[in-house]
Amino acid sequence: MPRNAEVIRQWNILREIERSRASGVTIDALATLCDVTTRTIRRDLQALEEAGFPLYDDRSHDDGRTRWTINGTAFKGLFAGLTLSELCALHFSRTLLESLAGTPFRDELESAFDKLGASLTPHMRQFLDQLPRVIASKPDPLRRLSDDDGRQQQVIARALEATLHQRQATLTYYSRSSERTKSYLVHPYRLAYAQGGLYLLAHVPEYNQVRTFAAERIAEISLLEERFTPVEELPDEAFQHSLGVHSGPPTEVTIEFERAVTDYVRAREWHQSQVWTEHEDGRLVLTLQVCIDQALHSWILSFGPFARVLTPAPLALEIASQINLAGARYAEPAASTPSGA
């Protein structure tokens, strides 16, 4: 039997014992749960005990059967409110959060996990460190690359302070849309992490609206002594109407997908507003309430000839225009390769 299957089974045994810690769980019940023999369960329990997990068996006065449970006081006061399974699950999730490496909270995450790991015995860590082998994470391909991590850390720290203490701030920002650098007086409302980047959502009195600033394009931020009172309540979810990081109003968008991609489209939640209608010939019509922004354009175009915008008409014309432009580029002669390349 593969070692991974054994480790996963032992993890499930540990979870079941803790879930039943009030009354305990029998070896027969664990064998049925895991679909293995009681002999295998006994070996697993011995392995978990040797790893340092505080398990013990106790004979019931009611039916005389031996039940296994966990010593709940062994980790009393450790990460208050967390069960042992939750504590182990956090340690296990480290492999997933490694995909955030390079984000502003990387150092804090590593520090927190180091403290978490220190609370476990060496044998427990050895056991749990085998679990990440059965799950892998891929770093976010959209993660922003910064030429100056130290400067960005300072920008983020000041933005956090301004947000927490509602202090007005001035920032120097490079706008990609206008291709120029400009200074703003802002009331920082929130920092939001999305699509591999960190964004500052701030009210700009000059325009009397909340605007979004990409952290890596904030050249400088200075905190002022003046405080501000928020004039607009932001929704709990950042960029709730966008497939990307836009904050505009939603529009009803309907897209028809060909049968070749319907299984893929239907199997995912692209947006919380999505509603689809299936046709007898296998086509799928998806309706979304989303912003008309670059993220939506890119998403539709990613399906190539297998997607067609039905409404709104201006969006359909824009997507068709972009497809035609792309086709025209491929019709052009390919540029020759420089000699020596």
Descriptive overview:
The protein is α+β, with helices and mostly antiparallel strands and 341 residues long. The chain has three domains: 1-139, Orthogonal Bundle (Arc Repressor Mutant, subunit A); 149-227, SH3 type barrels, CATH 2.30.30; 251-330, 2-Layer Sandwich (Alpha-Beta Plaits). The protein is built from eleven helices and eleven strands. It has helices at residues 3-19, 27-34, 38-50, 84-92, 94-97, 106-118, 122-128, 149-165, 259-266, 294-301, 313-331, and strands at residues 55-59, 66-70, 167-175, 180-194, 197-204, 209-214, 218-227, 251-257, 275-278, 284-290, 307-311. Strands 6-5-4-3-7 form a five-stranded antiparallel sheet, with helices on one face. The protein has a four-stranded antiparallel sheet with strand order 9-10-8-11. The longest helix is centred in the last third of the chain and has 19 residues, at 313-331. The chain is extended.
Quick rundown:
With 341 residues, the protein is of the alpha+beta class. The protein is built from eleven helices and eleven strands. The strands form three sheets. A five-stranded antiparallel β-sheet has the order 6-5-4-3-7, with helices on one face. It has a four-stranded antiparallel β-sheet with strand order 9-10-8-11.
